[in-house]
Write a sequence for this structure.
């Protein structure tokens, strides 16, 4: 989920607001930095961000959403979220899913990610969504602490099997 | 009431939306154009398809309908129901 370690005091003109589909194009560097710092065991394709845009834009405002932190006319952080259906055996309702939260290093540790999360929760509530999920890297204790401070609770571990794991062979 | 011709046109449009949303290039049967048959038709991709259908047909699906939009036939039926 979030990259939240950092930096110098954030300026007073910081604004948290709902983004636009067009503004998705402006967050490429933040998005790439987010995934490069995550240490996921996944190699991003060269057009990863462009593919992500393709997955976000068609349903923007209906089933995908982006909130931005802006300061001095520049986007310094963002949160991207989605809506998906739960399986019918779980009731088939809608579930929110926070896919990325990233803040520029110099704006971290000043509550920006926290404000982005709280703003997104309002959006989900307004859209009748009562459950929002997210994932966070195990070693990212700062993000875990911040997320739990706004009401997210750990429910399960995400376990990943890879074919090259030495323990995976019988 | 929708005529058979209108239904056929809707089915063709839905087929095209499914193919473009999930990047299906080759001709495939309706049996393959359904949730569970296309790897990219997952829970997130499903919502992209729903948004495309809503935009194309000018409808808005209520939540209870979303999980039933799993094939060309079910999508066309749901659109017809909302338009009736």
């Amino acid at each position: 989920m979030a990259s939240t370690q950092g930096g110098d005091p954030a300026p007073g003109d910081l604004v948290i607001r709902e983004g636009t589909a067009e503004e998705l194009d402006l967050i490429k560097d933040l998005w790439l930095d987010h995934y490069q710092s995550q240490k996921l065991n996944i190699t991003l394709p060269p057009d990863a961000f462009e593919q992500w845009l393709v997955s976000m834009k068609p349903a923007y405002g209906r089933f995908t959403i982006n909130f931005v932190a802006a300061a001095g006319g520049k986007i310094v952080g963002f949160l991207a979220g989605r809506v998906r259906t739960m399986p019918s055996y779980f009731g088939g309702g809608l579930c929110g899913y926070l896919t990325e939260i990233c803040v520029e290093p110099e704006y971290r540790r000043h509550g920006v990610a926290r404000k982005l999360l709280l703003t997104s929760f309002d959006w989900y509530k307004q859209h009748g969504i009562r459950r929002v999920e997210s994932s966070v890297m195990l070693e990212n204790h700062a993000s875990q602490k911040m997320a739990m401070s706004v009401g997210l609770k750990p429910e399960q571990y995400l376990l990943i099997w890879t074919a090259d794991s030495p323990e995976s062979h019988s | 009431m929708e005529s058979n011709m209108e239904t056929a046109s809707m089915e063709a449009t839905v087929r095209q939306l499914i193919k473009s949303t999930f990047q299906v290039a080759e001709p495939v049967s309706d049996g393959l154009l359904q949730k569970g048959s296309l790897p990219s038709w997952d829970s997130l991709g499903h919502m992209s398809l729903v948004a495309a259908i809503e935009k194309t047909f000018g409808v808005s699906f209520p939540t209870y309908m979303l999980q039933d939009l799993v094939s060309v036939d079910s999508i066309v039926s749901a659109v017809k129901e909302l338009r009736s």
